[in-house]
Amino acid sequence: MWKFVVRRLLITFPQLILLSLIIFLMAQAMPGDALTGLVDPNLSFEAKEELREKLGLNAPWHVKYAEWVSGVVQGDFGESFRFKMPVTELLEQRLWNSFLLGVMTLVFTYVIAIPLGIISGRYNDTILDSSITGYTYIGFATPLFIFALIMLFVFGYQLQWFPTSGSVAPGLQPGSMEYILSKFNHLLLPALSMALIQTVSTVQYLRSEIVDTKQREFVITARAKGASESRVYNKHILRNSLLPIAAFFGYEISFLITGTLFVEQIFAYPGMGLLFLESINLRDYSVVNAVVLLFGAAAIFGALLSDIILSIVDPRIRIK
Amino acid sequence: MEMKQIEAQTQDPTKSPSGLKILWRELVRDKVALFSLILLLLIMIFVYGVSFILDQDEIVKVDLFAIHQPPSEEFILGTDYGGRDVFGQLIIGTRNSLTIGFAVTLISGIFGIAFGLIAGYFGGHTDNAMMRVLDFFQVLPFTMLVIVFVSIVPKYTILAFCLIFAAFSWMGIARLIRSKALQEKELDYVQASKTLGTSHPKIIFKEVMPNISSLIIVTLTLNLAANIGIESGLSFLGFGFPESTPSLGTLLSYATNPQTLEFRWWIWVPAAVLILVLMLLVRNVGEALRRATDSRQRRG
């Protein structure tokens, strides 16, 4: 067990270093540097060069990389030239919003996916199963952004059940009951849009897993012993089929990251995804780099977490 | 039963049908898939044919006297915020989205297949090292990196877009091909070929690859559906095609304007429906092919 965890961790560190190198090279390829936007544009070329030298911007790349990494490790991502404030402070506000959206989406995903998967697997080849399979088939072919647009159009504009933009109604006191309710209300539609598309793979997985397990010998044995149908499902089949799903949530982070880009854009929800898109359009590259680095690291740690949980749940993985 | 007998008579009984033949036979037998394939071909013929007549420069020209017109006889599907004909943009957009879909699927496919075959065929340390690289690419936030690269590339062209897109989307097919190649290399024909002294590249590409061709075709078809969706998503966010080249996603991106979303359905609904239909059709074909590769799920 511990051997597997250590080996898996040994893969994670090179991944993080590679990610940071890619982002650093991206930053080098981006037009302008830390000085752009900070100084008076009327300054002469020589004066600017002198400033660059003093700030260490003309240093060789490995020195710059080392400096950048040591800054990042201490939580210093530089300045955002659009907001004229440290990127870290800017991220703090947005990170919280995206985190809430992510958690809400995961909750919805599991609340929807698990019952549907169980019904579909237990009563396979009935009308109920075919309609759930139909939903997953269409859901698999539907791009998230189209589905989110339709949700916004139907429930936001036509029925007006939900707010259509923002993360909270203006003018509310943070911490008050109304504030929390309003935040929750703003989260529902974006999170539901993402969850309804994200459930698809989990439902399919759970269904085929249950249909497979149903024919195993230990299930037949359980039936032969006279175990009731609900006991066969809850104690024997689901225990085998549900655990891997619990482990997959780390992998879901990659999907959530892509999802936040589209959903936050469509619902004008001020999170990291929207910040990323705004910043790249305004060429505020220090923010872009910070967001890519954070999301990339989140995906790497998510995969790590899932692999470790899976190895606990499923011993076969450890032996490999 | 009758069909089977006739087939058995017409074919050489000592020879089992090739993988491609089985795929085709299953596809024709699956009514939904066959219908999807025919409809898909009709859409493609129509879109590529009509776009020959349509002049792209004419369609993307701004006409300030015809802004946001609802559908009429002059403009079948109305106009957008620049007074441009939505119907024309829809046709050209579909053509562009399909072309990009094919190009990206092909480029990422070629690389992914080669990567998977080599990793799987050699196995051992080679496989281990190559899979670590693959794992890394797979965990990267794909959409974000494509967006960043698209916006920092100095000379942004459609080819550049295809290459960036493909650079981050070869992993899925590579993983599948690799696991199949791992099984395949244990088979007798590969061992025999090795004993005869055939070179590795020849075994990989002339002997192993043709044997897994059905898996390759299935995966490429399913990837095509996914790539059409991703491309329209990137164009929707504004990081797909260079400007002035309409795509299906571009039409949908007009719907980020609440006014357009709420009151001007003719701009975004047709594009949304078209993307959904295209993806479903391609998937239907792909799923039918996938069933055909699995002998347990075959119909005949």
Automatic annotation (TrEMBL), chain A:
<dbReference type="Pfam" id="PF00528">
    <property type="entry name" value="BPD_transp_1"/>
</dbReference>
<feature type="transmembrane region" description="Helical">
    <location>
        <begin position="287"/>
        <end position="313"/>
    </location>
</feature>
<keyword id="KW-0813">Transport</keyword>
<keyword id="KW-0472">Membrane</keyword>
<feature type="transmembrane region" description="Helical">
    <location>
        <begin position="241"/>
        <end position="267"/>
    </location>
</feature>
<dbReference type="GO" id="GO:0055085">
    <property type="term" value="P:transmembrane transport"/>
</dbReference>
<keyword id="KW-1133">Transmembrane helix</keyword>
<feature type="transmembrane region" description="Helical">
    <location>
        <begin position="99"/>
        <end position="123"/>
    </location>
</feature>
<dbReference type="InterPro" id="IPR045621">
    <property type="entry name" value="BPD_transp_1_N"/>
</dbReference>
<dbReference type="Pfam" id="PF19300">
    <property type="entry name" value="BPD_transp_1_N"/>
</dbReference>
<feature type="transmembrane region" description="Helical">
    <location>
        <begin position="187"/>
        <end position="206"/>
    </location>
</feature>
<comment type="similarity">
    <text>Belongs to the binding-protein-dependent transport system permease family.</text>
</comment>
<feature type="transmembrane region" description="Helical">
    <location>
        <begin position="135"/>
        <end position="157"/>
    </location>
</feature>
<feature type="domain" description="ABC transmembrane type-1">
    <location>
        <begin position="95"/>
        <end position="306"/>
    </location>
</feature>
<keyword id="KW-1003">Cell membrane</keyword>
<keyword id="KW-0812">Transmembrane</keyword>
<dbReference type="InterPro" id="IPR000515">
    <property type="entry name" value="MetI-like"/>
</dbReference>
<dbReference type="InterPro" id="IPR035906">
    <property type="entry name" value="MetI-like_sf"/>
</dbReference>
<dbReference type="GO" id="GO:0005886">
    <property type="term" value="C:plasma membrane"/>
</dbReference>
<protein>
    <submittedName>
        <fullName>ABC transporter permease</fullName>
    </submittedName>
</protein>
Automatic annotation (TrEMBL), chain B:
<feature type="transmembrane region" description="Helical">
    <location>
        <begin position="134"/>
        <end position="152"/>
    </location>
</feature>
<dbReference type="GO" id="GO:0055085">
    <property type="term" value="P:transmembrane transport"/>
</dbReference>
<keyword id="KW-1003">Cell membrane</keyword>
<feature type="transmembrane region" description="Helical">
    <location>
        <begin position="158"/>
        <end position="177"/>
    </location>
</feature>
<protein>
    <submittedName>
        <fullName>ABC transporter permease</fullName>
    </submittedName>
</protein>
<dbReference type="InterPro" id="IPR050366">
    <property type="entry name" value="BP-dependent_transpt_permease"/>
</dbReference>
<feature type="domain" description="ABC transmembrane type-1">
    <location>
        <begin position="94"/>
        <end position="286"/>
    </location>
</feature>
<feature type="transmembrane region" description="Helical">
    <location>
        <begin position="212"/>
        <end position="230"/>
    </location>
</feature>
<keyword id="KW-0472">Membrane</keyword>
<dbReference type="Pfam" id="PF00528">
    <property type="entry name" value="BPD_transp_1"/>
</dbReference>
<comment type="similarity">
    <text>Belongs to the binding-protein-dependent transport system permease family.</text>
</comment>
<feature type="transmembrane region" description="Helical">
    <location>
        <begin position="100"/>
        <end position="122"/>
    </location>
</feature>
<feature type="transmembrane region" description="Helical">
    <location>
        <begin position="32"/>
        <end position="54"/>
    </location>
</feature>
<keyword id="KW-1133">Transmembrane helix</keyword>
<dbReference type="InterPro" id="IPR035906">
    <property type="entry name" value="MetI-like_sf"/>
</dbReference>
<dbReference type="Pfam" id="PF12911">
    <property type="entry name" value="OppC_N"/>
</dbReference>
<feature type="transmembrane region" description="Helical">
    <location>
        <begin position="265"/>
        <end position="282"/>
    </location>
</feature>
<dbReference type="InterPro" id="IPR025966">
    <property type="entry name" value="OppC_N"/>
</dbReference>
<keyword id="KW-0812">Transmembrane</keyword>
<dbReference type="InterPro" id="IPR000515">
    <property type="entry name" value="MetI-like"/>
</dbReference>
<dbReference type="GO" id="GO:0005886">
    <property type="term" value="C:plasma membrane"/>
</dbReference>
<keyword id="KW-0813">Transport</keyword>
